[in-house]
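Incident log, support desk, overnight shift.

02:14 A customer reports that sequence design results differ from what the structure should imply. Their input is reproduced verbatim below. On-call engineer (initials T.W.) acknowledged and began investigating.
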């Protein structure tokens, strides 16, 4: 039987670190640094970006670095990395837009932290911001990790702490190390499968250009229901107004997935975007039209958004994001509540070599399976036959191009 999740609170450094660990995942948060999750290690492999100029391997500030609440232009932002929550839309034109980062309360202010455990062995970390006078919001981030799971749940809440109605959307931003760039360490052909995959539905258009730092990110249709953002050297952002409720990042560490509900009838920020992907790489000069921002590393941001909501005083809006982690490095075809479907990694499995390649299913919990294929035949191992959570199991060459896992 899998043991209970362990909880550690370490206050020996410049800021407290809170660690939740179930043996598969080790999740470390820094409540004092804007309520961030700074590290997620799956089977020892790090999935999140950490700014090596600000934080050491111990996730504490390097000598001479002082972190704390800061405001001003983007050039003043201490981007330590990790996973954080902001309000959307972002902008500097009026009170209905969030003029950050930096931001001294929601992005870089200290969050209160509480931990709890449950009889099933799960553990929860709740981080709560101060009341932000600019947006009128108080943000709550609640992370729950279960025993034996290769993923965790992040429940987000934005509370209107002001005395007047406010309209905002929740916006969760996950920063991931972009590695050595589109050509990998040797500068050659991009690694097969690496990039961001977003489930889409409907006729489209599925993407909208949002920010061009030096260009707009390129995208490509991977399947009729999946759009890929390949690894590329560009500073910019693309939005997905038809996102169906999942995204996945594939890189050297493996696969990170996110699932969240979408409201088909609701308005979303940024030309209706339910998902946004930001890419950056080192540039020689600050980008003056982006507040003097000067990227110094290759970073990928996977961003899940909730609908724009008018929040009454004392009311709130919520968004739940289910995170999953696996060891595969091939293209992702779909994400379900039980896990995710992908293609085997390696050039021999590329679509141009086999236009209908086999699929593999990676379960996030013991006994989970991928359901049935389009004709009702088994599409993966049944309960009790799959490998451990986070590890792939080969399907019986099921053809799934007409299968839409995101609709399960």
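02:41 Re-run completed on a clean worker. Output:
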């Amino acid at each position: 039987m899998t043991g209970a999740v362990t909880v550690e609170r370490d206050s020996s450094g410049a800021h407290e670190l809170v660690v939740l660990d179930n043996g598969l995942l080790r999740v470390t948060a820094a409540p004092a640094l804007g309520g961030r999750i700074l590290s997620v290690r799956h089977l020892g492999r790090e999935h999140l970006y950490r700014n090596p100029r600000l934080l050491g391997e111990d996730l504490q500030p390097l000598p001479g670095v002082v972190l704390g609440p800061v405001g001003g232009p983007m050039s003043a932002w201490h981007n330590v990395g990790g996973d954080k929550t902001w309000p959307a839309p972002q902008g500097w034109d009026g009170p209905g837009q969030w003029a950050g980062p930096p931001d001294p309360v929601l992005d870089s202010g200290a969050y209160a932290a509480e931990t709890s455990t449950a009889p099933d062995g799960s553990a929860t970390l709740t981080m709560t911001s101060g009341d932000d006078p600019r947006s009128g919001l108080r943000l709550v981030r609640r992370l729950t990790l279960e025993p034996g799971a290769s993923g965790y749940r992040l429940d987000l809440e934005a509370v209107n702490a002001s005395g007047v109605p406010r309209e905002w959307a929740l916006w969760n931003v996950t920063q991931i190390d972009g590695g050595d760039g589109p050509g990998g360490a040797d500068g050659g052909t991009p690694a097969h499968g690496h990039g961001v995959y977003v489930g889409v539905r409907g006729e489209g258009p599925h993407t909208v250009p949002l920010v061009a730092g030096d260009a707009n990110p390129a995208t490509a249709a991977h399947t009729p229901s999946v759009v890929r953002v390949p690894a590329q050297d560009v500073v910019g952002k693309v939005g997905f107004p038809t996102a169906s409720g999942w995204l996945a990042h594939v890189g050297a560490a493996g696969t990170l997935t996110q699932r969240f509900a979408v409201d088909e009838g609701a308005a979303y920020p940024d030309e209706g975007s339910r998902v946004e992907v930001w890419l950056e790489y080192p540039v020689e000069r600050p980008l003056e039209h982006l507040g003097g921002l000067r990227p110094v590393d290759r970073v990928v941001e996977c961003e899940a958004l909730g609908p724009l909501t008018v929040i009454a005083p004392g009311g709130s809006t919520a968004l739940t994001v289910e995170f999953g982690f696996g060891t595969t490095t091939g293209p992702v075809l779909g994400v379900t509540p039980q896990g995710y479907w992908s293609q085997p990694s390696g050039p021999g499995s590329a679509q141009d070599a086999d236009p209908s390649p086999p699929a593999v299913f990676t379960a996030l919990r013991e006994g989970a399976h991928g359901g049935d294929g389009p004709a009702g035949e088994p599409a993966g191992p049944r309960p009790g036959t799959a490998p451990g959570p986070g590890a792939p199991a080969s399907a019986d060459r099921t053809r799934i191009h007409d299968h839409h896992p995101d609709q399960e």
